TrEMBL record:
Any single biological process term in GO: SCF-dependent proteasomal ubiquitin-dependent protein catabolic process
Any single GO CC term annotated in Swiss-Prot or TrEMBL for this entry: SCF ubiquitin ligase complex
PANTHER family: F-BOX PROTEIN YLR352W (PTHR13318:SF95), PARTNER OF PAIRED, ISOFORM B-RELATED (PTHR13318)
Organism per entry: Phasianus colchicus
Protein name: F-box and leucine rich repeat protein 12
Length: 234
């Protein structure tokens, strides 16, 4: 694992990475699997210059060019985590999903990813086992496409305000789902959450944020899911 912090939020114009540096890194660390970059400007860095051995890429508060996540020599990622990477778009999502074998995808603060992007990427995410969506602008349509990912075992959807019970109900097809994390800072109702829990035969863990009070429905959820965690609004 290699973790690097850039100078994106400082006055320095020094670039953290270059193709030459990555080439040397590939030579010296031929088995590097996990690269974590924070506050890095990656505009001058071709994506296929990343070490081909990478299977985990984590970007936090980074700037990326429009043509990233593509290339014949690009790494075959299995895990991608993005936190506040504002340029990440539908095109990037399609590129990385169609060129890799993602098993874990985490998108937080990626406001350029739309329902259309999720639809186009869905056929290429058949191996996905873990999906985390936070602070996104997706709607119920996206949940319908997510429901096609039949191998999902872990799903987190939080701080996505435009979702309703209709979209939540579509997730009942995820028969392998074991861990679910939701919140009520949208238009989900407790009854819809309870109905979904009943429909998921392997669900073992539920985290639900934004629960104002524990009523009969909360008790029903607790009775049906072995491990439950409810947190009140801040």
């Amino acid at each position: 694992t290699l973790r690097l912090r850039g100078t994106l939020r400082t006055a320095s114009r020094h670039r953290l990475l270059s193709p030459a540096l990555l080439s040397a890194l590939t030579t010296r660390c031929p088995h590097l699997q996990h690269l974590s970059l924070t506050e890095a400007d990656l505009h001058t860095l071709p994506y296929d210059s990343l070490p081909p051995s990478l299977i985990v890429l984590e970007l936090r508060c980074c700037e990326i060019p429009s043509l990233w996540f593509s290339g014949s020599a690009a790494p075959r990622l299995q895990r991608l985590e993005l936190h506040n990477v504002p340029a990440f778009s539908d095109r990037h999502l399609l590129n990385v999903s169609s060129h890799g074998h993602l098993r874990m995808l985490s998108l937080s603060g990626t406001y350029r990813v739309t329902d259309t992007g999720m639809e186009r990427a869905a056929p290429h995410l058949e191996e996905l086992e873990r999906l985390e969506l936070r602070h996104c602008v997706l709607t119920d349509s996206a949940l319908h496409f997510i429901a096609r990912h039949m191998k999902l075992r872990v799903l987190e959807i939080t701080s996505v305000p435009h979702l309703t019970d209709l979209g939540l109900a579509s997730l009942a097809t995820l028969e392998r789902l074991e861990t679910l994390h939701l919140d009520l800072y949208n238009k989900f109702s407790l009854r819809a959450v309870a109905a979904l829990c009943r429909a998921l035969p392997r669900l073992r863990s539920l985290t639900l944020d934004g629960v104002h009070s524990e009523d009969e429905t909360v008790g029903e959820i607790r009775a049906g899911v072995p491990c439950c965690s409810f947190t009140p609004p801040p």
